[in-house]
Specification:
Blueprint lengths: L1 H13 L3 H16 L13 H25 L1 H5 L3 H29 L8 H11 L10 H28 L5
Helix pairs in contact: 1-2, 3-5, 5-7
């Protein structure tokens, strides 16, 4: 209870909105359940690896989408199946490339093992946890989620763009 109140006080002091307060409070709760202490600066733990992962992911996604539009333009003309397959495939391929960074991000943010640089952590996983393919732990559920979520998102976005164009709000 005292840790939760301290978390709330930190959030009020930092001027965070209630939405972020809930986030901090849930982080606090998880830390207490796992026997770890909570510090405000801990919210940024793993920022560097997350940034690198996201930069690679978004870059590759747009490269794959652009390449798909150039080489498989007929696929993009189909109303539902085209955008679903294009975006789902592009996002999933991008995830496959950056998945080792996603796995390292989870390791860093979850405080698994000792504090160590990401490269050293990757070497440890390769050496002790299944070789190179140990870096791809969890890739199957991640791929399923990526394909379905990104494919569906593109279908919704395509529908919304069509409706906005029909209303004359878009050139």
């Amino acid at each position: 209870m005292a840790a939760s109140m301290a978390s709330t006080r930190v959030n009020k002091f930092a001027g965070l909105t209630p939405m972020y307060g809930v986030k901090c409070e849930s982080v606090d709760r998880i830390r207490r359940q796992t026997g770890q202490t909570w510090h405000f600066r801990g919210l940024y733990k793993g920022f560097g690896i997350t940034w690198c992962r996201t930069l690679g992911l978004m870059t590759l996604y747009f490269i794959f989408i652009d390449s798909g539009r150039r080489h498989f333009s007929e696929l993009f003309q189909r109303p539902l199946l085209g955008p679903f397959l294009a975006s789902g495939s592009a996002a999933t391929l991008a995830w496959w490339v950056v998945w080792p960074l996603e796995y390292m991000k989870s390791q860093v943010q979850g405080n698994y093992g000792k504090e160590m640089p990401v490269i050293q952590r990757m070497r440890l996983v390769i050496k002790e946890r299944g070789g190179f393919f140990g870096l791809y732990r969890g890739i199957l559920p991640g791929s399923i989620r990526s394909f379905l979520a990104n494919g569906t998102s593109m279908v919704v976005m395509s529908w919304a763009q069509r409706k906005v164009s029909e209303m004359g709000l878009r050139d």
